[in-house]
Every structure is written in C-alpha cells, then in structure tokens.
Inverse folding.
C-alpha cells in the first residue's frame, strides 16, 4: 500500500480510485473531463485526492485542482 504523508496505509477506496483512473484515461485519450468529489467532512476526500494526484503526477500528468470555499451551512 502507498504511504504518503501520514504514514498510514491507504485502503478501502478501490472503487473511487478506479473511477478517478478511468477519468484520467479518458482525459489522456483527448476527452474533456472534470471530476467533482464531494462528501461529508472527515470521510477521506483529501486523502483520496492526495494519493490519486501523486499517482497521476508520477505518471507524467499535469494536474489542476480546485477547492470549494467554506460557506458554512449554506454549502
């Protein structure tokens, strides 16, 4: 298992990681691709992206990442 930053093994996100890899393959094939990752606080969104982006960048992909501004309960 990859260990990036936290020293804790990255597990239990196989389905989500596969979906991100599929989107990346489509983008590499010339398709316009955007991915929206959402979920409750603390469910591992940042960790999933950290792991995926490291993998994508290691494969030579230029990655752009946007984040949502915190708007409190109106989010």
């Amino acid at each position: 298992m990859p260990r990036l930053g936290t020293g804790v093994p990255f597990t239990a996100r196989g389905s989500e990681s596969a979906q991100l890899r599929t989107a990346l393959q489509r983008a590499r094939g010339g398709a316009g691709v955007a991915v929206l990752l959402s979920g409750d606080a603390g469910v591992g969104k940042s960790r999933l992206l950290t792991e995926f982006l490291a993998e994508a960048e290691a494969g030579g992909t230029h990655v752009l990442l946007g984040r949502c501004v915190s708007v409190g309960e109106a989010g």
